[in-house]
Specification:
single chain, alpha+beta, five-stranded antiparallel beta sheet, about 25% strand
Length: about 260
């Protein structure tokens, strides 16, 4: 797997793809309401990506043992953690929906996800959403040029556990650029026994990564049906997913998918 380290011209292309991703997530935010469907949101986003001269790197994505991914976005509702398939079920008051969107433009990819409450959500749902967004921000704040991936992992895990939630371990952040998934992996947890100064990849300038905490309301365990895409919480609890593509510059961290 290639390592996601890029020069300034490449980062500019990822930034341009990231602008389209941000537009797509804003479109989703405006469309998501009681009675709307995730298929309607997917169709609108796919059309917007096309008009902006891009394609979806999700559509047709191949993973061993699964059919090609059939959608332009991942739309994950309530207990679906990641890789949800859009459908025609009308969304209900109180649903939680995570929209994960990627855009390939001029040969480079950006990727981001956001979770939303539909209509009137209960306080527990809103608290879960706040924890997911805060975990993403904590991870971004912990990233630093020439720092370690493990610093991001520790910050995310600490916040999620302090809020009383669980960190999904089977799915992690990743490098991104020419391909959707590149090195390094960016876990949302610090591996047991790891010494932080020596844990994980060094974030050299030019590294482009996706930081993406997945936060479960209940237990951390997840399940999926063999050959199928959606990943669900094992206990049926709700889950949220927040993600940004970020670039490591010489003296700072730049978020490439922020509106």
């Amino acid at each position: 797997m290639a390592k996601a380290v890029y020069n300034e011209q490449h980062i500019e292309k990822i930034r341009e793809a990231g602008k389209v991703v941000a537009e797509c997530l804003d479109l989703a935010r405006r469309m998501l309401a009681p009675g709307a469907t995730t298929r309607q949101v997917e169709q609108a986003i796919a059309e917007h990506i096309r008009k902006r001269g891009g394609t979806s790197p999700f559509f047709g994505y191949q993973l061993a043992g699964k059919r090609p991914f059939p959608c332009a976005i991942c739309a994950s509702v309530n207990d679906v953690v990641v890789h949800g398939i859009s459908d025609d079920r009308p969304l209900q008051d109180g649903d939680l929906v995570s929209i994960d969107c990627g855009v390939r433009k001029d040969g480079f990819i950006a990727d981001a996800a956001w979770s939303y409450a539909i209509g009137r959500a209960d306080e527990k749902a809103l608290a879960l959403l706040r924890a997911g967004e805060d975990a993403l921000n904590a991870g971004i704040a912990a990233a630093r040029p020439r720092g370690k991936v493990g610093e991001i992992s520790r910050a995310i895990e600490r916040l999620i556990k302090e809020r009383g939630y669980s960190v999904v371990r089977e799915y992690v952040g990743h490098g991104v650029g020419r391909s959707l998934h590149e090195e390094p992996e960016v876990p949302n947890f610090l591996k047991a026994g790891a010494l932080l100064p020596f844990f994980g990849t060094t974030l050299v300038p030019g590294t482009v990564i996706c930081i993406e905490p997945m936060v479960n309301e209940g237990r951390k365990q997840v399940v999926s049906v063999a050959g199928e895409w959606p990943v669900r919480t094992a206990d049926g609890g709700r889950s949220v997913h927040f993600e940004h593509t970020v670039a490591v510059r010489n003296e700072r961290i730049e978020v490439l998918t922020k509106a």
